[in-house]
Amino acid sequence: MQKITDSLSSLATAIQELANDSPTEIEINDRSLSGNKIHGGMITKFQSKGIKDESTKDKVLVNDLGLHVDNISVESILNPVTIKGDLNVEGNITATKLHVNEITADIRHERTSPLEFVSEGDAGIYGKGLQWRGDGPTKQFVYRGNPDRIWTTESIDLNSGCSLYIDSVPVLSEKELGSTISKSSLTTVGTLNNLQTSNDLCIDGWIYYESDSNRLGIGTEAPNAQLSIVSLESEFIVDCETSSTRIGNWTTDNLDIVTDNTTRITINAHGDIVLGTNNETKTKVVGKLGINVNNPSNDIETSGPVKFQGKKFETGIAIPTSGLYNIGDIVWNQSPTPTGYVGWICVREGSPGEWKPFGQINV
What we know:
Blueprint: H1 2-20, E1 60-63, E2 66-69, E3 129-132, E4 139-144, E5 149-152, E6 164-166, E7 169-172, E8 201-203, E9 207-210, E10 215-218, E11 227-231, E12 234-240, E13 245-249, E14 255-259, E15 262-267, E16 273-275, E17 289-291, E18 300-302, E19 306-308, E20 311-316, E21 330-333, E22 341-348, E23 354-360
Parallel strand pairs: 10-11, 17-18, 20-21
Antiparallel strand pairs: 1-2, 3-4, 4-5, 6-7, 8-9, 9-10, 11-12, 12-13, 14-15, 15-16, 19-20, 21-22, 22-23
Protein backbone atom coordinates (compact mmCIF):
# COMPACT_ATOMS: atom_id res chain seq x y z
CA MET A 1 0.00 0.00 0.00
CA GLN A 2 2.88 2.29 0.88
CA LYS A 3 4.36 1.63 -2.55
CA ILE A 4 1.21 2.74 -4.32
CA THR A 5 1.14 5.90 -2.29
CA ASP A 6 4.77 6.68 -3.06
CA SER A 7 4.19 6.07 -6.79
CA LEU A 8 1.22 8.43 -6.99
CA SER A 9 3.20 11.07 -5.10
CA SER A 10 6.08 10.77 -7.62
CA LEU A 11 3.63 11.06 -10.56
CA ALA A 12 2.09 14.19 -9.09
CA THR A 13 5.50 15.73 -8.62
CA ALA A 14 6.46 14.97 -12.25
CA ILE A 15 3.23 16.46 -13.60
CA GLN A 16 3.79 19.59 -11.55
CA GLU A 17 7.27 19.96 -12.92
CA LEU A 18 5.99 19.58 -16.48
CA ALA A 19 3.37 22.22 -15.85
CA ASN A 20 5.93 24.62 -14.48
CA ASP A 21 8.43 24.07 -17.30
CA SER A 22 8.14 26.04 -20.59
CA PRO A 23 7.15 23.85 -23.61
CA THR A 24 10.05 22.78 -25.73
CA GLU A 25 9.71 23.84 -29.39
CA ILE A 26 10.17 21.09 -31.93
CA GLU A 27 12.23 22.14 -34.91
CA ILE A 28 11.01 20.76 -38.30
CA ASN A 29 13.42 21.28 -41.13
CA ASP A 30 12.22 22.34 -44.62
CA ARG A 31 10.88 19.51 -46.76
CA SER A 32 11.35 17.11 -43.83
CA LEU A 33 7.62 16.44 -43.13
CA SER A 34 6.46 13.40 -45.09
CA GLY A 35 4.13 10.44 -44.86
CA ASN A 36 0.93 10.35 -42.89
CA LYS A 37 2.01 12.88 -40.33
CA ILE A 38 -1.13 15.06 -40.31
CA HIS A 39 -4.61 13.79 -39.40
CA GLY A 40 -7.44 16.19 -38.65
CA GLY A 41 -6.98 19.67 -37.43
CA MET A 42 -6.64 22.86 -39.47
CA ILE A 43 -3.77 24.13 -41.53
CA THR A 44 -3.86 27.93 -41.85
CA LYS A 45 -2.18 30.09 -44.49
CA PHE A 46 -1.27 26.99 -46.43
CA GLN A 47 0.94 27.77 -49.42
CA SER A 48 2.86 25.71 -51.94
CA LYS A 49 4.39 26.32 -55.34
CA GLY A 50 1.07 25.51 -57.06
CA ILE A 51 -1.46 26.36 -54.30
CA LYS A 52 -1.96 29.51 -52.23
CA ASP A 53 -4.69 29.59 -49.56
CA GLU A 54 -5.96 33.09 -48.69
CA SER A 55 -9.52 32.17 -47.65
CA THR A 56 -10.93 33.13 -44.30
CA LYS A 57 -13.72 30.53 -44.29
CA ASP A 58 -14.50 27.13 -45.75
CA LYS A 59 -14.76 27.28 -49.57
CA VAL A 60 -13.85 23.83 -50.92
CA LEU A 61 -15.35 20.49 -49.92
CA VAL A 62 -14.12 17.19 -51.27
CA ASN A 63 -16.10 14.03 -50.58
CA ASP A 64 -17.12 10.83 -52.33
CA LEU A 65 -19.60 12.79 -54.52
CA GLY A 66 -16.90 15.05 -55.90
CA LEU A 67 -15.49 18.56 -55.51
CA HIS A 68 -17.85 21.20 -54.14
CA VAL A 69 -17.07 24.90 -54.50
CA ASP A 70 -19.18 28.07 -54.66
CA ASN A 71 -17.21 30.03 -57.28
CA ILE A 72 -14.56 29.04 -59.82
CA SER A 73 -12.31 31.50 -61.67
CA VAL A 74 -10.30 29.84 -64.44
CA GLU A 75 -8.71 30.96 -67.69
CA SER A 76 -8.99 27.69 -69.65
CA ILE A 77 -10.60 24.26 -69.35
CA LEU A 78 -8.47 21.99 -71.49
CA ASN A 79 -10.48 18.79 -71.52
CA PRO A 80 -14.15 18.12 -72.51
CA VAL A 81 -16.62 19.02 -69.74
CA THR A 82 -20.02 17.46 -69.08
CA ILE A 83 -22.47 19.57 -67.07
CA LYS A 84 -25.38 17.66 -65.56
CA GLY A 85 -27.89 20.26 -64.52
CA ASP A 86 -28.60 23.88 -65.33
CA LEU A 87 -25.88 26.32 -66.43
CA ASN A 88 -26.48 30.03 -65.86
CA VAL A 89 -24.17 32.45 -67.69
CA GLU A 90 -24.42 36.12 -66.77
CA GLY A 91 -21.70 37.21 -69.18
CA ASN A 92 -20.88 36.48 -72.83
CA ILE A 93 -20.29 33.07 -74.43
CA THR A 94 -17.78 33.00 -77.29
CA ALA A 95 -17.67 29.65 -79.10
CA THR A 96 -16.05 28.40 -82.28
CA LYS A 97 -18.84 25.89 -82.80
CA LEU A 98 -21.99 25.29 -80.76
CA HIS A 99 -24.05 22.07 -80.94
CA VAL A 100 -27.42 22.03 -79.18
CA ASN A 101 -30.57 19.95 -79.38
CA GLU A 102 -32.89 22.77 -78.37
CA ILE A 103 -32.61 26.49 -77.66
CA THR A 104 -35.21 28.43 -75.69
CA ALA A 105 -34.53 32.16 -75.66
CA ASP A 106 -36.27 35.48 -75.26
CA ILE A 107 -33.38 37.77 -76.06
CA ARG A 108 -31.96 39.65 -79.02
CA HIS A 109 -29.63 37.69 -81.30
CA GLU A 110 -26.87 39.64 -83.01
CA ARG A 111 -24.86 37.98 -85.79
CA THR A 112 -21.92 38.99 -87.92
CA SER A 113 -22.23 35.99 -90.28
CA PRO A 114 -25.15 34.21 -92.06
CA LEU A 115 -27.29 31.63 -90.28
CA GLU A 116 -26.28 28.31 -91.84
CA PHE A 117 -28.12 24.97 -92.02
CA VAL A 118 -25.70 22.14 -92.82
CA SER A 119 -26.53 18.90 -94.68
CA GLU A 120 -26.88 15.93 -92.36
CA GLY A 121 -27.43 12.28 -93.34
CA ASP A 122 -29.80 11.19 -96.11
CA ALA A 123 -32.16 14.13 -95.49
CA GLY A 124 -29.50 16.60 -96.69
CA ILE A 125 -30.56 20.19 -96.11
CA TYR A 126 -34.28 19.50 -96.65
CA GLY A 127 -36.66 20.19 -93.79
CA LYS A 128 -34.25 22.62 -92.15
CA GLY A 129 -35.22 26.19 -91.38
CA LEU A 130 -37.20 28.14 -88.79
CA GLN A 131 -40.03 26.81 -86.64
CA TRP A 132 -42.34 28.45 -84.13
CA ARG A 133 -44.11 26.22 -81.60
CA GLY A 134 -47.06 27.33 -79.53
CA ASP A 135 -50.82 27.36 -79.84
CA GLY A 136 -52.05 25.28 -82.79
CA PRO A 137 -49.88 23.68 -85.47
CA THR A 138 -46.16 24.45 -85.69
CA LYS A 139 -45.39 27.46 -87.88
CA GLN A 140 -42.60 26.74 -90.36
CA PHE A 141 -40.27 28.51 -92.77
CA VAL A 142 -38.15 25.67 -94.16
CA TYR A 143 -36.36 24.35 -97.25
CA ARG A 144 -38.12 21.62 -99.26
CA GLY A 145 -37.39 19.57 -102.37
CA ASN A 146 -39.26 18.31 -105.47
CA PRO A 147 -38.76 21.02 -106.59
CA ASP A 148 -36.20 22.78 -104.40
CA ARG A 149 -37.84 25.79 -102.77
CA ILE A 150 -38.40 27.76 -99.58
CA TRP A 151 -41.73 26.67 -98.05
CA THR A 152 -43.82 28.27 -95.33
CA THR A 153 -47.05 27.42 -93.54
CA GLU A 154 -47.92 31.09 -93.07
CA SER A 155 -48.69 34.13 -95.22
CA ILE A 156 -45.88 36.54 -96.09
CA ASP A 157 -46.77 40.18 -95.45
CA LEU A 158 -44.57 42.78 -97.12
CA ASN A 159 -44.45 46.32 -95.84
CA SER A 160 -46.25 48.96 -97.91
CA GLY A 161 -44.10 50.09 -100.83
CA CYS A 162 -42.05 46.86 -100.93
CA SER A 163 -41.92 44.37 -103.82
CA LEU A 164 -40.99 40.80 -104.67
CA TYR A 165 -37.97 40.54 -106.98
CA ILE A 166 -36.61 37.85 -109.30
CA ASP A 167 -33.04 38.36 -110.50
CA SER A 168 -33.15 42.03 -109.36
CA VAL A 169 -36.35 42.66 -111.35
CA PRO A 170 -39.59 43.51 -109.45
CA VAL A 171 -42.33 40.99 -110.31
CA LEU A 172 -45.01 41.95 -107.79
CA SER A 173 -45.63 45.15 -105.89
CA GLU A 174 -48.53 46.54 -103.90
CA LYS A 175 -50.37 47.71 -107.02
CA GLU A 176 -48.59 46.26 -110.07
CA LEU A 177 -47.38 43.10 -111.74
CA GLY A 178 -43.84 43.38 -113.06
CA SER A 179 -43.20 44.11 -116.72
CA THR A 180 -41.61 40.66 -117.16
CA ILE A 181 -44.87 38.86 -116.25
CA SER A 182 -46.12 37.61 -119.64
CA LYS A 183 -48.17 34.53 -118.79
CA SER A 184 -50.75 33.73 -116.11
CA SER A 185 -53.95 31.79 -115.44
CA LEU A 186 -56.04 34.54 -113.87
CA THR A 187 -59.69 33.60 -113.35
CA THR A 188 -61.01 36.76 -111.71
CA VAL A 189 -59.89 40.38 -112.15
CA GLY A 190 -61.33 43.75 -111.30
CA THR A 191 -61.72 46.73 -113.62
CA LEU A 192 -59.09 46.78 -116.38
CA ASN A 193 -57.87 49.99 -117.97
CA ASN A 194 -56.12 50.18 -121.35
CA LEU A 195 -56.22 46.41 -121.80
CA GLN A 196 -53.94 45.18 -124.60
CA THR A 197 -53.68 41.58 -125.77
CA SER A 198 -51.77 39.65 -128.40
CA ASN A 199 -52.48 36.32 -130.13
CA ASP A 200 -55.82 34.55 -129.66
CA LEU A 201 -58.36 35.74 -127.07
CA CYS A 202 -61.31 34.01 -125.42
CA ILE A 203 -63.79 35.76 -123.12
CA ASP A 204 -66.04 33.54 -120.99
CA GLY A 205 -66.13 30.84 -123.67
CA TRP A 206 -68.41 33.11 -125.73
CA ILE A 207 -66.27 35.74 -127.47
CA TYR A 208 -63.31 34.50 -129.54
CA TYR A 209 -60.62 36.39 -131.43
CA GLU A 210 -58.43 34.62 -134.04
CA SER A 211 -55.12 36.42 -134.40
CA ASP A 212 -54.15 34.55 -137.60
CA SER A 213 -57.30 35.55 -139.52
CA ASN A 214 -58.00 38.78 -137.59
CA ARG A 215 -61.58 37.61 -137.05
CA LEU A 216 -63.85 38.14 -134.04
CA GLY A 217 -66.56 35.61 -133.26
CA ILE A 218 -69.38 36.07 -130.77
CA GLY A 219 -70.89 32.71 -129.96
CA THR A 220 -68.52 30.88 -132.31
CA GLU A 221 -64.89 29.78 -132.36
CA ALA A 222 -64.83 29.72 -136.19
CA PRO A 223 -66.15 33.05 -137.51
CA ASN A 224 -66.81 33.27 -141.26
CA ALA A 225 -66.15 37.02 -141.44
CA GLN A 226 -64.22 39.71 -139.67
CA LEU A 227 -67.17 39.92 -137.27
CA SER A 228 -69.57 37.00 -136.80
CA ILE A 229 -72.44 36.79 -134.33
CA VAL A 230 -73.88 33.30 -134.00
CA SER A 231 -76.98 32.12 -132.17
CA LEU A 232 -78.29 28.58 -132.67
CA GLU A 233 -78.09 28.05 -136.46
CA SER A 234 -77.98 31.72 -137.53
CA GLU A 235 -74.80 33.68 -138.24
CA PHE A 236 -74.76 37.42 -138.81
CA ILE A 237 -71.59 38.78 -140.42
CA VAL A 238 -69.83 42.07 -141.06
CA ASP A 239 -66.95 41.78 -143.50
CA CYS A 240 -64.69 44.01 -145.56
CA GLU A 241 -63.28 42.82 -148.85
CA THR A 242 -60.99 44.48 -151.37
CA SER A 243 -63.68 46.50 -153.16
CA SER A 244 -66.78 46.07 -151.02
CA THR A 245 -68.18 45.73 -147.54
CA ARG A 246 -70.61 42.96 -146.70
CA ILE A 247 -73.23 42.86 -143.96
CA GLY A 248 -75.97 40.28 -143.49
CA ASN A 249 -76.60 36.62 -142.77
CA TRP A 250 -74.05 33.94 -143.64
CA THR A 251 -76.79 31.33 -143.12
CA THR A 252 -80.11 30.90 -145.00
CA ASP A 253 -82.15 32.85 -142.47
CA ASN A 254 -84.20 35.96 -143.08
CA LEU A 255 -82.41 39.24 -142.41
CA ASP A 256 -84.62 41.69 -140.53
CA ILE A 257 -83.74 45.35 -140.06
CA VAL A 258 -85.63 46.68 -137.04
CA THR A 259 -86.34 49.89 -135.19
CA ASP A 260 -88.30 50.12 -131.97
CA ASN A 261 -88.07 46.33 -131.88
CA THR A 262 -90.22 46.26 -135.04
CA THR A 263 -89.10 44.82 -138.38
CA ARG A 264 -88.94 47.56 -141.02
CA ILE A 265 -87.09 45.76 -143.84
CA THR A 266 -86.94 42.01 -144.42
CA ILE A 267 -84.62 40.21 -146.84
CA ASN A 268 -85.54 36.55 -147.00
CA ALA A 269 -83.28 33.61 -147.77
CA HIS A 270 -84.14 33.80 -151.51
CA GLY A 271 -83.34 37.50 -151.79
CA ASP A 272 -86.91 38.84 -151.69
CA ILE A 273 -87.08 42.26 -150.02
CA VAL A 274 -90.06 43.49 -148.00
CA LEU A 275 -90.17 47.19 -147.08
CA GLY A 276 -92.46 48.03 -144.18
CA THR A 277 -94.80 45.80 -142.22
CA ASN A 278 -98.28 47.35 -142.66
CA ASN A 279 -100.30 49.82 -144.77
CA GLU A 280 -99.37 52.70 -142.47
CA THR A 281 -95.68 52.34 -143.15
CA LYS A 282 -94.28 55.10 -145.36
CA THR A 283 -91.36 54.39 -147.66
CA LYS A 284 -89.52 57.36 -149.07
CA VAL A 285 -87.02 57.22 -151.92
CA VAL A 286 -84.86 60.31 -152.27
CA GLY A 287 -83.31 60.61 -155.74
CA LYS A 288 -83.96 58.48 -158.84
CA LEU A 289 -85.21 54.90 -158.60
CA GLY A 290 -84.01 52.44 -161.22
CA ILE A 291 -85.28 48.86 -161.58
CA ASN A 292 -82.84 46.71 -163.57
CA VAL A 293 -81.31 49.99 -164.74
CA ASN A 294 -77.75 50.86 -163.81
CA ASN A 295 -77.97 54.65 -164.26
CA PRO A 296 -81.59 55.88 -164.12
CA SER A 297 -82.14 59.33 -165.57
CA ASN A 298 -85.76 59.68 -164.42
CA ASP A 299 -87.35 59.58 -160.98
CA ILE A 300 -88.61 56.02 -161.67
CA GLU A 301 -87.02 53.97 -164.41
CA THR A 302 -87.42 50.30 -165.24
CA SER A 303 -86.16 48.05 -168.00
CA GLY A 304 -89.36 45.96 -168.06
CA PRO A 305 -93.17 46.24 -167.67
CA VAL A 306 -94.69 48.02 -164.66
CA LYS A 307 -97.98 47.47 -162.89
CA PHE A 308 -99.96 49.71 -160.52
CA GLN A 309 -103.51 49.42 -159.20
CA GLY A 310 -103.82 46.06 -160.93
CA LYS A 311 -103.05 47.38 -164.41
CA LYS A 312 -100.03 46.32 -166.42
CA PHE A 313 -98.09 48.69 -168.67
CA GLU A 314 -95.45 47.61 -171.16
CA THR A 315 -94.11 48.60 -174.58
CA GLY A 316 -94.26 46.80 -177.93
CA ILE A 317 -94.55 47.21 -181.67
CA ALA A 318 -97.91 45.41 -181.98
CA ILE A 319 -100.72 43.72 -180.10
CA PRO A 320 -99.37 40.89 -177.89
CA THR A 321 -99.75 37.43 -179.32
CA SER A 322 -99.04 35.47 -176.13
CA GLY A 323 -99.21 35.87 -172.41
CA LEU A 324 -102.03 36.37 -169.91
CA TYR A 325 -103.53 39.86 -169.79
CA ASN A 326 -106.39 41.49 -167.91
CA ILE A 327 -108.86 44.17 -168.93
CA GLY A 328 -107.20 47.60 -168.77
CA ASP A 329 -103.67 46.39 -169.46
CA ILE A 330 -101.90 48.66 -171.97
CA VAL A 331 -99.13 48.10 -174.48
CA TRP A 332 -97.48 51.37 -175.50
CA ASN A 333 -96.36 51.62 -179.10
CA GLN A 334 -92.58 51.90 -178.96
CA SER A 335 -92.41 52.88 -182.71
CA PRO A 336 -95.28 55.35 -183.26
CA THR A 337 -95.88 56.80 -186.77
CA PRO A 338 -98.34 59.35 -188.22
CA THR A 339 -101.84 57.91 -188.61
CA GLY A 340 -100.72 55.11 -186.29
CA TYR A 341 -101.81 54.64 -182.66
CA VAL A 342 -100.25 55.52 -179.32
CA GLY A 343 -100.86 51.97 -178.13
CA TRP A 344 -103.27 49.09 -177.53
CA ILE A 345 -105.57 48.36 -174.57
CA CYS A 346 -106.95 44.96 -173.45
CA VAL A 347 -110.77 44.94 -173.54
CA ARG A 348 -111.18 41.25 -172.70
CA GLU A 349 -108.86 39.20 -170.51
CA GLY A 350 -107.28 36.08 -171.87
CA SER A 351 -104.20 34.71 -173.49
CA PRO A 352 -103.52 37.08 -175.07
CA GLY A 353 -107.09 38.48 -174.73
CA GLU A 354 -108.83 40.99 -176.99
CA TRP A 355 -107.08 44.27 -177.84
CA LYS A 356 -108.12 47.62 -179.31
CA PRO A 357 -105.90 50.44 -180.53
CA PHE A 358 -106.28 53.90 -178.94
CA GLY A 359 -104.95 57.39 -179.47
CA GLN A 360 -104.63 57.74 -183.26
CA ILE A 361 -101.76 59.96 -184.22
CA ASN A 362 -102.57 62.79 -186.70
CA VAL A 363 -100.80 63.17 -189.99
